[in-house]
Amino acid sequence: MTLLQLFFTFFLIGLFTIGGGQVAITIMQQYLVDTGIIDSAEFFSMVAVSESTPGPIGINMATYVGCKLYGVFGGVVITFGTVLPSLIVIMLIAGYYEKIQKNNLVQSAFSALRPGVTGLVAVAAWQIIALAVVNVQGFTNSGSFSELFDLKTLAAYLVFTALLLFTKVNPILVIAAGGVFGLVFL
């Protein structure tokens, strides 16, 4: 795939992504992994790095893919391809915002999009959790819990989730701890 083809692919991803970066990641996965451009393990490593770096995850992911495939210039081009649709739409809407803000058709469209976007975000979250915690390669038909789940990763997931949900620990510290855990124990 040429850089120009990848630019237009990410332009379309940016154009049709409604719901944020997690939705963009689901679409990127379907395109990049299913077409064989990168494998699923490499893709989810990219997701992990993109989630742990500052900034919007969809943009981080686009930059990472571009850099991985075409170097720094590719990262810049693919990132631009991802954000260009949003810039165009924002520029078009800005002039008409007052008129369309209270339009019933526009409000109905946004109401109809919410459940679909929620589903796409849930699918993306599940895929990340399943790849990180479920041990698909080591699973046999015995149905053993310890074969199905990577117990260290599952324990870390539960601890870090509990820290985020039930304490006031800064999420940045939890992300850093997760990175250290991955480097030391995995």
From TrEMBL:
* InterPro entries listed in its UniProt record: CHR_Transporter, Chromate_transpt
Regions that span the bilayer: 70-97, 117-134, 154-185
GO MF annotation, one: chromate transmembrane transporter activity
Q: Which UniProt keywords apply?
A: Cell membrane, Membrane, Transmembrane, Transmembrane helix
Bilayer topology annotation = Multi-pass membrane protein
Cellular compartment(s): Cell membrane
Q: What is the protein's given name?
A: Chromate transporter
Name any GO cellular component annotation: plasma membrane
